[in-house]
Amino acid sequence: MKGQDTEKKNIIFLAHSNNDVDHFLPLIYGLKKSSLFTPRIFFLRFEEEVLSNKIHQELIKDLRIEKFSALNFPEWPWISRFLSRCLRVCFLLGGRRRAKVLFREKKYIKFFCKILYVILDLFLKKFSANLFPPARIERILKRFTPHLLIIDIQIVEQQPPYSDLRSYLLAMVVQFFRKNHLPVFMIPHGAAIRYVRGEDYPFNRPDIFKPDVLALSNEMEREVTQGLVGENTRIVVLGDLRYDYEWVEKLEEYGKNIYMVQKPKGRKVILYILGNLRFLSDEVYENEIHKDIISLLEKHPDWILWVKTHPRVIKDFDVLSTLNSDMLSRIKVFGNDVDTNALIPYADILISTLSGVLFQAIMKNRIALLYLRWKERFPYPVETIFDSANCVLKAFSKEELHRYFEDALSQKLSNPADAEEFYMKFVSGGIPLGKSLIDRYTVAIHGIIGEKGNERNTKSI
Asked: Which of 56, 151, 171, 270 is 20–30 Å from 334 (CA)?
């Protein structure tokens, strides 16, 4: 019995996008420090789809984290690996900005990659169970003698037909854990920023998986996630891991060493963090919002604009094609390969339409401006967690944007007490800046594994 108590606990993190690793890594870092756990990352589909960020790559290497992907699972290795690698190439070349550099004016090649990607994706969806049979997935997972599965808050389909290969693999892994009475812990993808009163949230479906434990960033998220709460689901409010103060400091240090980003001498930087505005379904209107931000440069020749694209919206910053050469020379766009933490230390002001990155500006007592023009196009009354915050400037029109920007140039930094109040209410689950969110999650994991350990013998799996 004593040997079982000191046995390292194996934890599987299930990742399917760049954002997943973003909020998994601080917890993995904490678990590795404790020396009581062995965390592993399982990439749904292929690794390159998730690990485009250089800081993430270096951290995984430095922390010596074992990782594996769907390529470990194929029953028919020649066929499935060939198809998966074709899918990977098409994803990398057909859906990213680097394709323009590789092919320049050969746009038809990029278009062909996108079409082939869709075809291969549909093929893998149709034959998922043949190429990646459940029994094979079970055999792979059993090798690790897992104690806990950690996934982000999302819809997990319980029955076929599954939406795609990713949904199928996700369902198979979750079913393995449920079948073997092993706990599944859902953690927040990030604090929910936007709330629509009375909205039919996507989780309000009877046919989706309910986790054993559901972690939230703040109390407001209970309404959004109520559809994920089953009869035996326990809710814990633990905060948004990405904004653990020690972790933010570590990321900024890695960013300086890896990217060697330099602020041009004599220039001031607006860091424009793109929000995910796909809910507007209007790219023309989005470009108008971008132009409003760019217009801030017109009266300030000593300022430049750094644009950080959203990790889940892989598309070009198309508004650049409408600008003259002088304005273009003052704008730089950073994609998923560059971590936001490499840019924030050099920013004189952070502006976003809808992004939790503003949390970091608030934590560091920097000037943060939220541009909410998009609210005029939203079909329902909508609230954000920044609406009543004194530590964030808020503009609803181009005129207000310019006025508040001018005010920001002369204003003093926000009141630290306002920042602390906001952080505790919306970001940290109630604890102050000096306390560790990572430690809080680690303690929770000890409890989750301990509870389930009393219900079943891991070695019987």
From this structure: 151
Kindly state whether residues 181 and 208 are assigned to the same domain: yes
pLDDT tens by residue, 14-58: 998 767 888 999 999 999 988 899 999 998 877 777 787 889 999
Do 440 and 416 share a structural domain?
Answer: no
Distance CA 340, CA 270 (A): 13
pTM for the predicted model, two decimal places: 0.88
Using alpha carbons only, give the angle 282, 285, 286 rounded to the nearest 5 degrees: 85
Whether residues 238 and 337 fall in one domain: no
The Cα-based distances of 210 to 213, 231, 282 in angstroms read: 9, 9, 34
Give me the CATH number covering residue 6. 3.40.50.11190
Convert 125-138 to b/e letters by CB count within 10 Å (16 or more is b). beebeebbbbeebb
